[in-house]
């Protein structure tokens, strides 16, 4: 290992930009591993864990920028650092050429742009609450992309926002669409009459994409952050967001999305929506089945929730292609898989998409394991090998420490894919490919060589490997969805038309004999 370090004192770059820079740095020929990060204690710990820590980094201040590099033996590490600095210079040049003025504090920005009404916070969690408080006190709604913010700080910020009549989206809020503008990870969808409140990033993206596909659009998509419906936080942001959508004249239907909330919080949410004057669709992933009530519609799966929302908004379902499951394909794949190939391996960049597929499998199988399982008996820890039916969320904290999100950098998933594809007990590998703002410019293309090689290797060894790919995106996203789908099908992968269909296909492909 050849470690080289470059420290730039008093140089701040936000975390979203650092994720993108780190991804590009790791793609430079000759780089084994690179981390570009602020010298916070958390980031120093990450560098220790991956073997890129030195005494020089130990002495760096939190305001310093660190470039830590492990180069291949034959490479000139200093030349590689120069290439990384060139990437950073190019970013600065693009920023400098932007027509808008750049401001270094929230107060200055608000003073010079008095009409501004929203701040996106993307700084280290150590400072995120402080900056969010400044934004709220300057009468700005807040979307906090940052995580590692304490529950106590989250409650304080949401209480402050409530008092001031503002939205406090987050912490760890990955997506929103406000006045038809996508924030952080978001898909390009048409404006319409359906408002979404989501405690789940990719779940909200999936609903927005399906609504767009079915001919309607989004009035507002308000993220809450993943902890909002916990017992401690009490659904503060979801309740305020419901109030906001009730008051919004453009919103005709409201959709609520979350992983299973705390029971007391779920009842609090239901008490509020029972008073709503607009119809409400609820998709609480994995929650117990409930009967519909007047004006309240409970759905178990994502496509069903989107379909319910658009029909409530006035779309005629009889005129829609709802993409029913391809039953002949299910029979065909079952015949191709041998008796040893019993298991699904789901490898996801989106946590909610992983959850939906996992809960779909659990309806049929008892041996379902995941790194996001709530049952300790079925929980896999970082580094654990897969067993039986396994579903991995590569966006979980243990996979993103020191690395960009897998929607940006797929390297962790590619490595795991190769392991799963070589397992003779695996019949189906299920993956999502997320398009839109902030996502990889060619997510299918990045996986394509590994997928092609895996299928060829399986064939050479006398077995069929079924790969299911779901592309989460619209015809308006900058990545061309038709090209992404064509790349998938070009190597014999099965394209699923929705997250819901992807999970159902994977499950049904491996059901055999008496289990059918």
TrEMBL record:
Q: Which residues does the UniProt record annotate as the domain ATP-citrate synthase/succinyl-CoA ligase C-terminal?
A: 347-506
GO CC, alphabetical: cytosol; succinate-CoA ligase complex (ADP-forming)
Query: Domain CoA-binding, which positions?
Result: 191-285
Give the UniProt record's GO annotations in the biological process aspect. Answer: tricarboxylic acid cycle
- Single Gene Ontology MF annotation: succinate-CoA ligase (ADP-forming) activity
Q: According to the lineage, what is the superkingdom?
A: Bacteria
Give any Pfam family that matches: Ligase_CoA
Q: InterPro entries, alphabetically?
A: CoA-bd, SUCC_ACL_C, Succinyl-CoA_synth-like
Q: Which NCBIfam families match?
A: PRK06091.1
Q: What is this protein called?
A: FdrA family protein
- Organism for this UniProt entry: Enterococcus moraviensis ATCC BAA-383
């Amino acid at each position: 290992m050849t470690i080289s370090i470059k420290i730039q004192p008093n140089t701040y770059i936000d975390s979203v930009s650092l994720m993108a820079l780190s991804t590009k740095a790791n793609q430079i020929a000759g780089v084994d591993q690179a981390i570009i990060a602020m010298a916070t204690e958390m980031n120093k710990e990450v560098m220790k864990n991956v073997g890129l820590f030195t005494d020089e980094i130990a002495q760096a201040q939190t305001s310093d920028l660190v470039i830590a590099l492990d180069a291949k033996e034959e490479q000139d590490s200093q030349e590689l650092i120069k290439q990384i600095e060139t990437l950073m210079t190019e970013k600065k040049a693009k920023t400098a050429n932007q027509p808008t003025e750049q401001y270094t504090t929230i107060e200055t920005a608000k003073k010079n742009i008095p009409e501004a009404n929203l701040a996106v916070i993307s700084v280290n969690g150590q400072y995120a609450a402080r900056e969010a408080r400044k934004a709220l006190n300057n009468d700005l709604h807040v979307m906090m992309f940052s995580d590692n913010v304490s529950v106590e700080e989250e409650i304080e910020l949401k209480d402050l926002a409530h008092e001031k009549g503002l939205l406090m989206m987050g912490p760890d809020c990955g997506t929103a669409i406000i006045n038809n503008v996508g924030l952080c990870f978001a898909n390009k969808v048409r404006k319409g009459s359906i408002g979404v409140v989501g405690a789940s990033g990719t779940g909200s993206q999936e609903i927005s994409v399906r609504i767009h596909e079915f001919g309607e659009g989004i009035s507002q998509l308000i993220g809450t952050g993943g902890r909002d419906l916990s017992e401690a936080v009490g659904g503060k942001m979801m309740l305020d967001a419901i109030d906001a959508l009730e008051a919004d004249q453009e919103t005709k239907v409201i959709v609520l999305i979350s992983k299973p909330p705390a029971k007391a919080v779920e009842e609090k949410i239901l008490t509020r929506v029972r008073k709503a004057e607009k119809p409400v669709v609820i998709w609480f992933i994995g929650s117990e089945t409930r009967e519909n009530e007047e004006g309240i519609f409970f759905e178990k799966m994502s496509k069903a929730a989107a379909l319910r929302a658009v029909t409530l908004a006035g779309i005629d379902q009889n005129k829609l292609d709802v993409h029913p499951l391809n039953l002949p394909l299910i029979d065909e794949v079952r015949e191709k898989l041998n008796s040893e190939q019993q298991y699904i391996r789901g490898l996801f960049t989106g946590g909610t998409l992983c959850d939906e597929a996992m809960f779909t499998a659990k309806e049929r199988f008892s041996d379902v394991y995941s790194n996001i399982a709530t049952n300790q008996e079925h929980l896999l820890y970082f580094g654990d090998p897969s067993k039986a039916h396994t579903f991995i969320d590569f966006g979980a904290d243990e996979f993103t420490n020191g690395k960009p999100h897998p929607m940006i950098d797929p390297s962790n998933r590619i490595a795991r894919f190769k392991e799963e594809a070589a397992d003779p007990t695996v019949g189906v590998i299920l993956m999502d490919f997320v398009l839109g703002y902030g996502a990889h410019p060619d997510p299918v293309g990045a996986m394509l060589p590994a997928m092609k090689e895996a299928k060829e290797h399986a064939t050479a060894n006398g077995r069929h490997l079924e790969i299911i790919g779901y592309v989460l995106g619209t015809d308006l996203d900058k990545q061309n969805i038709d090209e992404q789908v064509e790349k998938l099908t070009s190597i014999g992968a099965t394209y699923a038309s929705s997250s819901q269909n992807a999970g159902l296909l994977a499950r049904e492909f491996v059901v055999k004999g008496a289990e059918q």
